[in-house]
Amino acid sequence: MGVMPYKARFLSLLAGGVLLATTAACGSGAAQTAAAPGGAAGDKPTVVAAFYPLQWLTEQIAGQDVTVQTLTAPGVEPHDLELTPQQVAGVGGATMTVYIKGLQPAVDEAVEQNGADKGFDAAAVVQTLPAHAEEEPEGGEAAHEHEHEVSYDPHLWLDPSRFAGVATKLGERLAEADPAHAQAYKERAAKTVAALGALDQEFTKGLATCSTRSIVTAHEAFGYLANRYKLKQVGISIDPEAEPSPARVAEVAKVAKAEKVTTIFTEALVSTKVAEVLATEVGAKTAVLDPMESQPSGGDYLSAMRGNLTTLRTALGCTA
Ligand SMILES: [Zn+2]
May I ask which residue range the UniProt record assigns to the signal sequence (predicted)? Predict the structure, then answer.
């Protein structure tokens, strides 16, 4: 990575005739190319992935045919991510940027400014769910104002069946962008769809019979998972970086008691303080449920999701 400047990479793609149509429609892209020095032929396309689950998905489908870069480093909470000028330039020079509009405003902006036709918005290719079922009564408004830029919940990767829908579309887009490897993209996309389908079945079976179906989570990341497997999510906060109001914490405590919740879920990148206080108050334990917003410390998307399933089954008292 990083041997060739982005402009050169972009040019080499153009030399291959891959993006001619796209660039003709995009004035600034054409100007950039004209100014760039000659690029080496045969360089791979570069695809920028906004954060971990999209990186994983892109890598599965791209295989060896694409250089995949990620904007969110491991261990970094992706909401409110800020981009370096180099990263913005990287978005401009990439063949494609895979992102979810509404999750990371800085990424949305970089894509908009650098040719939206090169953006692959995962939220645009599957059916989305409304932002949050229950409005937080009093919240730090500044903290989650960005959450209201889009009306849907961006955490769609936590439903494997929806994520499989993204995989198919991403395979098609890669095939269009790099026709020489079209067949390979489509085959790898189909394989990824099958792996996600198997995961989806495990969740459906594993969560079929449980003594409670309410999950109290650190932030409202699990709406799609809850929707798919008929669970009820109660998020302590909407934005992982915002402190929930005392009124919200009291409300969650009330629901947790009424629903006989045994476990308050925390996540690695969010402070566990509020969750621990809440757990003590309602006589519950805490356990980590990974919203997969950053690369898991071990394994990958599939294994971390299976870890989540095990955690959920224990917490919800699921049998069979
Ligand atoms: Zn989130």
Answer: 1-30
**Which residue from 217, 89, 245, 92 is spatially nearest to 155, judged by alpha carbons?**
217
In 3D space, the residue among 247, 251, 205, 212 whose CA is nearest the CA of residue 229 turns out to be 205
Distance 74 CA to ligand 1 centre (A): 15
**20-33 burial: b if 16+ Cβ within 10 Å, else e:** eebbeebeebeebb
Q: Using one digit for the tens of pLDDT, what is the confidence trace for 219-274?
A: 889 999 999 999 999 999 877 777 888 999 999 999 999 999 999 999 988 888 88
Q: How far away, in angstroms, is 279 Cα from ligand 1 center?
A: 21
Give a three-class secondary structure readout of the chain.
CCCCCHHHHHHHHHHCCCCHHHHHCCHHHHHHHHHCCCCCCCCCCEEEECCHHHHHHHHHHHHHHCEEEECCCCCCCCCCCCCCHHHHHHHHHCCEEEECCCCCHHHHHHHHHCCHHHEEEHHHCCCCCECCCCCCCCCCCCCCHHHHCCCECCCHHHCHHHHHHHHHHHHHHHHHHCHHHHHHHHHHHHHHHHHHHHHHHHHHHHCCEECCCEEEEEECCCHHHHHHCCCEEEEEECCCCCCCCHHHHHHHHHHHHHCCCCEEEECCCCCCHHHHHHHHHHCCEEEECCCCCCCCCCCCHHHHHHHHHHHHHHHHCEEC
Cβ count near 283 (within 10 Å)? 11
Token pair of 255 as six digits: 């629901």
Q: How far apart are CA 315 and CA 32, in angstroms?
A: 54
Q: 221 C-alpha to center of ligand 1: Å?
A: 5
Q: What is the pTM of this model?
A: 0.81
CA-to-CA distance for 240 and 129, rounded, in angstroms?
19
- How would you classify the pairing of strands 209-210 and 318-319? antiparallel
The mean pLDDT of 186-209, rounded to a whole number, is: 98
- Taking the centre of ligand 1 as the mean of its atom positions, its distance from the CA of residue 69, in whole angstroms, is 21
